[in-house]
Amino acid sequence: MQRIDTDVVIVGAGAAGLTAATELVKAGRTVVVLEARDRVGGRLWTDEIDGAMLEIGGQWVSPDQDALIETLDELGLETYPRYREGVNVYLAPDGTRRTFEGEIFPVPPATEQEIVTLIEKLDALVAEIDPERPWEHPDAKDLDETSFARWLETQTDDEEARENIGMFIAGAMLTKPAHAFSALQALLMAASAGSFSNLVDADFILDRRVVGGLQQVPLRLAERLGDEVVRLGQPVRTLRWNPEQPAEGVVAVTEELEVHASEVILAMPPVLFSRISYEPPLPRRQHQLHQHLSMGLVIKVHAVYETPFWRDLGLSGTAFSPYELVHEAYDNTNFDDPRGTLVGFVADEAADGVFQLPAEERKARILESMSHYYGEQAKHPVVYYESDWGSEEWTRGAYAASFDMGGLARYGADLRTPVGPIHFACSDMAGKGYQHVDGAVRMGREVAAQILEGARAGAR
């Protein structure tokens, strides 16, 4: 087994881990990044499927994501706007297809008023939430013991209003049923984007894409660091550390390497922390905390057509309905691509259901749902692909981890707290930018600064 000595070992070559590595190297520290997969990027992955470039993982950039935007600028990456000309589509509870413009769906006037009122109430609550410390809100415990579904029920009797508001957090973001996460977790999700209004504004939250795909960020960061720093196909099996003598550092062990370092950063989804054996074990608090986090479940559906036919029909490609199998969909055509691509999403319990079907039947069900928005042509793509992160060994869900009921108020303050020489960083732990690449970049920067500040304090 090869021994490597370095200042910091980082487990995970996603945006958080590679950002941390970049910041540490800039400051003169030596770093080794160990990645279990045979590629960098984590939940960012751009691949060619049947001749079509598809962003299998994360892909959008919104105007408030300044940490990500700074990184894009630094790496020389260009962006382009998501196509949004034309009208959007909404499917009502009875299946009626309606087109609309703006943010509010074409619902009955009384329901529209309820939706507007709910958004105003949520924006007011979100304004009281610090996304870095949501557990410090005076009502945090009560909000965390109330499911988001139940909270909505206390606010309005209008079921269509509840379904539509719930969709933006449950299906579109946390990808869990609204009864499975708390109102506090929902408020954190909204606060991480600046407001609930931002989450319901597709033109804001899904503003732009990166030419060549968002995976270009980790790919270019890794390229700058070099192959000697970033080691692929190296899942860490054991982490040895001494809680009595943190200065002794850590040893990260793969099947081929033994990396000795002063400190380690675990830059991966928290649901994977238990894949590593710790000698000795992590403290009780960490064991409990990590068991209260779980990933959501969503199928990201890519359908490529010879042309973006919906544009000729005057449609933007943006479509919503909490009553459809595909609850939201967008024009996802690549930069300067003459073909058209639609991307749709099937989340939480709906995803459970279709995953029980044979692949061809699942495809038919999903395309049938998309045809309700776009017409018969949607049933006949030339390329069809389903991003299934739930079956991916080194991710196990999407888009990110969130706490179960009561977990955020109970454990949130310890989520990013280092344990001796062991540090934690990933988008799942971010405040601003939570669940997004922007949050991963922020966490990478934060943990690198934490390590460097600790080194400076030790030198004084």
TrEMBL record:
It comes from Agromyces tardus. PANTHER family: AMINE OXIDASE, AMINE OXIDASE [FLAVIN-CONTAINING] B. Its cofactor is FAD. Substrate binds at residue 345. This is FAD-dependent oxidoreductase. FAD binds at residues 35-36, 236. InterPro entries: Amino_oxidase (IPR002937), FAD/NAD-bd_sf (IPR036188), Flavin_amine_oxidase (IPR001613), Flavin_MAO (IPR050703). It holds the Pfam family Amino_oxidase. Belongs to the flavin monoamine oxidase family. Residues 16-452 form the Amine oxidase domain. SUPFAM superfamilies: FAD-linked reductases, C-terminal domain, FAD/NAD(P)-binding domain. Keywords: Oxidoreductase. GO terms for molecular function: oxidoreductase activity.
